[in-house]
Design goal:
Layout: H1 9-21, E1 37-40, E2 43-47, H2 60-73, H3 88-101, E3 105-109, H4 112-123, E4 129-133, H5 138-147, E5 150-154, H6 159-169, E6 176-181, H7 193-203, E7 206-210, H8 225-228, E8 237-241, E9 251-255, H9 257-266, H10 268-271, H11 278-293, H12 296-315, E10 331-337, H13 339-351, E11 354-355, E12 357-359, E13 369-374, H14 381-397
Parallel strand pairs: 2-11, 4-5, 4-6, 6-7, 7-8
Antiparallel strand pairs: 1-2, 3-9, 8-9, 10-13, 12-13
GO molecular function, one term: pyridoxal phosphate binding
Cofactor: pyridoxal 5'-phosphate
Catalytic activity: 6-carboxyhexanoyl-[ACP] + L-alanine + H(+) = (8S)-8-amino-7-oxononanoate + holo-[ACP] + CO2
Length: 401
């Protein structure tokens, strides 16, 4: 029985609303390693819900690196980076990422969220303008709000609309920032990084890309959307994550040496958060080595992605492109529409042996609820075929197909 005091009764009311709408959820608990087949809530299920694109979460070389670093450096850094918490291994990781991304410098944050929010909020102020894709990640939205800059939202991937907005503000004082996701996390489509970079150059704007879901997925050896579009040297701020394809935890910002030095001095999450445990830094270094030495992982990821999308489409599922953007990456949404039905479908899939998370408003717009699936490089064809059987059988039983 909840012991909520009257001062927080409005929270209980909101939870009750979610229950009535059928979009209330409980956290599923993983017992064991994150893999293509995992044990959640005591049930073995095919896992199509994680961001473990390349199967690195439990890779032996990453585990070995983490154990070795723990033995050598201990379990924590004991301080924020600017006081006493910058360890040699943190700098090694940042140098590794900067070389991988073909930029001057890199700084690692505690998460992809803090990398985005901390960067946007620190490099702009109230006299400035942010031009942001309407489907950009929540961390970009929060960073934009914290910056107090004037926010202009352009229609999803609509370069002409972005240019209209740039023209409106080109003679205003203040800096202009154009920002897009490299890969959009709910629809799996790719941002028009090259065309937006053209605009940024034309109007003298700062160009920024959030490559959380493109890192390890797009570009040579997973270098991301900037490499995919051959835009090296044209994107001022590149954000990436260490918690998805890289398999560990954290985010990073890449760019010029001056950008990184500035973030050392002004990015609040960097200034006020303890640095990564050395085991995490070592794990990430090992992961970037693997991206270079095992490119076949990315090839397998894309083979599985093409096969799974094709089979879903053949079965009659809406995987985007009708009422939502078309998926172009391993993120493949199955659009259901109504929130309650989506959550019921996700629950039924789990009971049948498949983990595929239902996502509804406010994460996605009303009427565009979906079950989001993400294949990995480590799924076998047999596992994907079984997942397709479960999806098709359950959807037919529930009248979705």
């Amino acid at each position: 029985m909840s012991q909520t005091r009257p001062q927080l009764a409005h929270l209980t009311a909101t939870l009750n609303e979610l229950k009535e709408r059928g979009t209330y959820f409980k956290l599923r608990v993983l017992d064991g390693e994150q893999g293509p087949v995992s044990i959640y809530d005591g049930r073995e299920v095919i896992n199509l819900a994680s961001n473990n694109y390349l199967g690195l979460c439990d890779h032996p070389k990453l585990k070995e690196a983490a154990l070795k670093a723990t033995e050598q450096y201990g379990v924590g850094s004991g301080a924020v980076r600017t006081i006493a918490g910058t360890m040699k291994i943190h700098l090694e990781l940042e140098e590794k990422i900067a070389a991988f991304k073909n930029v001057e410098a890199c700084v690692v944050f505690q998460s992809g969220f803090t990398a985005n929010a901390g960067t946007v909020s620190s490099i702009l102020g109230k006299e400035d303008f942010i031009l942001s894709d309407e489907l950009n990640h929540a961390s970009i939205i929060d960073g934009a709000r914290l910056s107090r800059a004037k926010i202009k939202v352009f229609r999803h991937k609509d370069v002409a609309h972005c240019e209209e907005l740039l023209k409106e503000v080109q003679n205003e004082p203040g800096h202009k920032l154009v920002i897009t996701d490299g890969v959009f996390s709910m629809d799996g489509d790719i941002g028009p990084v090259d065309k937006l970079a053209d605009l940024a150059e034309k109007y003298g704007a700062i160009m920024m890309v959030d490559d959380a879901h493109a890192s390890g997925v797009l570009g040579r050896n997973g270098r991301g959307s900037v490499d995919h579009f051959h835009c090296h040297g044209r994107v001022d701020v590149q954000v990436g994550t260490l918690s998805k394809a890289i398999g560990a935890l954290g985010g990073y910002v890449c760019g010029s040496r001056d950008l990184i030095e500035y973030l050392y001095h002004r990015a609040r999450p960097f200034l006020f958060s303890t640095s990564h445990p050395p085991s995490v830094a070592a794990t990430c270094i090992a992961a970037f080595d693997l991206l270079e030495s095992e490119p076949e992982r990315i090839e397998r990821l894309w083979e599985n992605t093409r096969y799974f999308k094709q089979q879903l489409t053949s079965a009659g599922f809406d995987v985007g492109g009708k009422t939502t953007p078309a998926s172009e990456t391993p993120i493949t949404p199955i659009i259901i529409g109504e929130g309650k039905l989506t959550m019921e479908f996700s629950k039924a899939l789990f009971e049948a042996g498949l983990l595929a998370t239902g996502i509804a408003f406010p994460t996605v717009p009303e009427g565009k609820a979906r079950v989001r699936t993400i294949v990995s490089s480590e799924h076998t064809k047999a596992q994907l075929d079984r997942a397709l059987e479960i999806l098709t059988g359950t959807a037919k039983r529930m009248g979705i197909l």
